[in-house]
Amino acid sequence: MQRNTPALVLSALAALAACDSNDPAKKSEPAKQEPAKQEPAKQEPAKQEPATPEPARTEPEALAPAALVAPKPNEPGPAFFAVDKQGIARLQDGAFKILDGSPPILQKDLQLGPDGALWVIGFEDILRFDGTRFNTVAKASFSDVGGSPDHLSIAPNGDPWISTYKGVSHWDGKAWITEEKAAIGAGDDLLEAIVVDRDGKVWVASSNRVHLRDGAGAWKEVSLKKAKGGKLWLKDLALSPDGHVHVLIDEALIKFGATPNSEASELSKVNVGVKGFAQMSDVNFAQGGSIGIISYKDVYHLPAGGSPRKYSSEKSRDFKADSISAVAADDSGRLWVGSEIGVSVIVPGAARVEWASGSVPELVGDIKEIVVFGAGPKDLPTGGPLATGGLTGTILRDGAPVAGTTVELCPSPSSFFTKSPCHDAPVKFTAKTDAAGVWTVANVPLGSYGLAIKNGKKWSVTLMSDMADGMKAGAVYDTGSMSLDKK
Question: Any residues with CB less than 8 A from the CB of 465 and at least 6 apart, and which?
């Protein structure tokens, strides 16, 4: 997630309030373990409710001055959450609200732009929040840019830049201009991140190289030899509030340049508290300079002017999470973490605040991104009672019911495990099939779930986390039938 957090990024929570006074992994690489042998599960068509439609497409509108302006660092501000199947939720004045015009699916790179506005990718649209609703600034269809937009950065002049499988494209207000990967020197590598710095220079991270486009439009590769020996695997790029570009690798955060305008080849590692092995994947800067980083089941937090610390979700040691997907630091010293089972706000020296999936209607679903303006909301509400429902389904083999077999239900059944796919999940349920091959689990918090099925002495994992999308509070949702191969 590439955050554009310039030092002079603008102020005025009051402007936001005036607009609406009533509104509130790259996936990480799993730890190496001996994978258990599994057999694939074949899913037969289930009788389900119609799939969530694609985001409504509207014609791009002329880009007006931002009505939403971020507060100054250390001043209170709202928090925003990209929630799969819902949209962009805002927490402000103690209340949550799904914002009008926000994309309900395929949200990527929610971020604060240099204009003080909130930007996001939604499917093929580049959208900007004006304080009241999200508006489409540009459409980036396959025919326009050669692939789906994966990463976003906003230039100082307001032009959106995106990376796709094909290359790098920017919107000049009328059309997309695309430079393919061969032109920037990335070859067949995937493009992992993009950042436009204060001078308008474009930085792109491919699998193990950083590419820089200067003011004249020429691309060159930025050497990382001084950072670490051997081949580096790049995960993310970010622009700090003081104007430095940073690149994230598995075990380190690297800052380019002793000063923002110095040579890019000047590298230094930022001490974020890593000791030994890490699997870092996403980095986020708060407006005041605090840093949050995802590292598989852990998060690292470096408050501005403070000491780094690691927090772990392993066995719910410091907070509860399953498949951490979002992190954001704020200027009040808090760290916000999102996953498939809700949101945790880590408050150093105080009790953490948790909104479990099902306790806040607007946060039911995978939390894809989090952005917090300034110091964030001053007062955090408590979640309500868990909204729950039931799930049921049928297990078949060669068309016949499979009776007496064990099924496990959790947000992300693991393909790498020692006991069972859901054994280490903080939220999990177990059931057995009856004579008709039917399993049923009651009182399940609304959220995302996948299924693991005991198939003889082995496990079959569905690799699905959206099988429960049709859940409703107080009702039992039929997920359909799953067909097992022969033992």
Answer: 340, 366, 411, 412, 448, 449, 450
